[in-house]
Queue: 2 jobs
Job 1
Amino acid sequence: MGNVTQNIKPWAQKLENFCIKLGKNNKATYPVMAIAFVKGICRPAFTMMDKTEKPDTKKYTALREGLTELIAIPTYLVCGEASAWIAKKLIKDPVESAKASKNLMFIGVCGAALFAIPALCSVAINPIVKKFLKEKKEKELAARPEEKHNSVLQFKPVLIPFNGTKRPLNTPYNNTSARIGMKVGGV
Amino acid sequence: MINPITSFITSNPLSTIAQSTSTSVTIETTMKAIGRPGFILIDNNISTDTKKYAAAKEFLYQATCLLLYATIVVPLFKNGAFKLAPKIFKHRAEEFSQFANPKQFAEYRKYAKLPYEDRVNNTKIDKVLPPKLAKYLHTAKETPEQYDTIKGTIEAGSLLGSVIGLAILAPQVSHAIIHPALRLIGMEEPKKHHSSNEKISEKQINITV
């Protein structure tokens, strides 16, 4: 058996060790965290590649999707590990405790998917997205000072009090100046 | 009150579900399909129509994921890993050849976890396993061989399938399915067919803007 094991390639040996570890101890948090991690990269990337949507809609959707998975990863970990910790405290027998911790970890992950992640997302995502969009708008305005200038200088009606034309009744008429030098037009 | 809870969290069926990647991911996706649309519907910051639309879209996305996962991903990757592994781990080929498929191995592992008293006269074992393995489980007084490599191989295949299926394939497939489905249930307006003149005018507008 030992000689046969030595004949397999190093990468196959590493893969086998990984499989043995996974077979002995497969935690419920592993697949959900792996899915959330890859989804957090791929889903926003696919959204950004969509040519049918408007750029702003794409950015908003991609940001939401990315943030959802970013929240999901630590939530799965915390809920799963916390549930396993509770199981260890609840059951003293080591064999039963190990089994209970894995089972309760799975229940914790389900609880995270059902309650914790949607609740956290609905609380946390909207303010973050709003803040991001506000900052982006401010940056855009700062990058284009002309537009900012135009946006500040708007046409506002200036009300000047007008009481009719007032002319001095006795206008001094200098007759001598009109007769000196070249004259354009006639007075 | 404590006893039913402790007996539930230490039960073997729950342990089998929790240790299986495909089953736990299926249940977790079902939870998502309930939880996410539910939380969208109770959100007071958005209008009723937007809530209904967003909730329906999210539910359809999760349902598509679930359907795709259960019908294509799990059988393909689980069975694929089980068939491919003896070619990579040649020294384990004999172990793998004892089982016809991953389902039979899951049955073996379920009964192998039971104590000797529960296995010795258990007739269910004879129905689901080949005679050689059934006899071994009936007679083994100590804990039977668990075959962690086979279990790990199946789980690794499921893990890879879950990641590829749910994170890469499902968003693509759901994108093609969701909008026609929403139009079918009347939650989205039918797609407008632009005439050639309209297209030209749109292009002109884009150029001028």
Job 2
Amino acid sequence: MSSSESEDKLFFYLCLGIVFGILGFFRGFKIRGKKKLIENIPTSTVRGMAVGLVEVQGVAQPFQGTQKTPFSKVESVFFHYKIEEHQGSGKSSQWVTIKEFATPSWFLLEDGTVKVLINPVGAEFYLAADRKYQLGSWGGGADTEVFEQGLIDLGISPHGFLGFDKQLRCVEQYICPGDAIYIMGEASENPLVQGSATGFENLCIQKGDAPFFCISDESEKELLVSFCGKMYLYLYGGPVLTVACLFILIGHYFRHFF
Amino acid sequence: MEIVISVAVLFVVLGLIGYFVGVYNGLIQVRNNMDKAWANMDVLLKQRHDELPKLIETCKGYMKYEQTLLEKITQARTSFMNATSIAEKTQAENQLAAGLKTLFAVSENYPDLKANQNFLQLQNRISGLENEIADRREFFNDSVNIFNIRIQQLPDVFIAGSLGYTHRPLLEIPKEETSDVKIQF
């Protein structure tokens, strides 16, 4: 690589750093807004829930049966997976998402009072990775066959050129019946039940007009801790990155101007 | 070098503005959440009050010796309807809840009333509403608690003071309802 090329690359990365720093700073405020929303809204019981933004906690229950996750074959009420392939070579190689899917099926949340329907479409998920699979030169371990079979079932070939294994990885997250979950979303009209004498039966939780709709298998406290960490990282890290990149940029390229 | 310092200062200024806007918006949000929590509870209280005339009408024919109790419930209902402040409404609501509790307990002595389908239906409906009211009462108290904490915290206290936000009372259950019940055999 010539000196001019590496100079160009450095210039590009510094500019990128400045932009990412600024974006990160504003992202920090966005995360702060979500954190404050969680803090400001008390947890409601499903029975006492009213129309509008609500926060509920309870255990997941199936609504119209469970569904098997594609890789682990676990009975779940909701699952999400993301398959990535390592493409390219050398420094320009990267992980590219080749398939991502989240079940759109409704499920129930029970909190000891009554149950409420949850429509997960449009939610932000904060779920722990239940299973991780990998295939290729990084090795797959004991679950390679399970992963390969799951890929074939989904119509993705695990083998590439000349029959060599592709560099693939996958994260699978799921909510099983009985798992403790935390939800913040909009309680709005339940399309399946209308005109019930008990108000809560007329409601379901979905994205609606809610500024924030999240489903998590972490408790409210754990979620707040995670938001707090991210918030400080972006709010302080963003400006530091921008200022540092700007400092290097000016010092390296525009010194003679100042 | 001035540019770098100017950018750093700009970030600090933007950060401070963003922070105070966030605090202000947060206070407005908790205040509105609290008002909404009260309004949502009020809806259920009104629904229950709408059922009361039907209940009293049904009971009148059977409970000839409990006229004082029925009158007490009617009075509490009227007080609630005329109440304007949360404190007045709470007081009337507590009287009403106590009256209804006694009514349902006394109804055990009237087998004909207990067999009346209309009464049973109203009893179930009112008991269901009572449970929902209890949940919303708890939610309201949580909302008030968050509001009270926020307006006393730094730096929220300065903005809350300029907005005229003051400490709000919780909805408390009267002592007689929380004291131990004496059971005699």
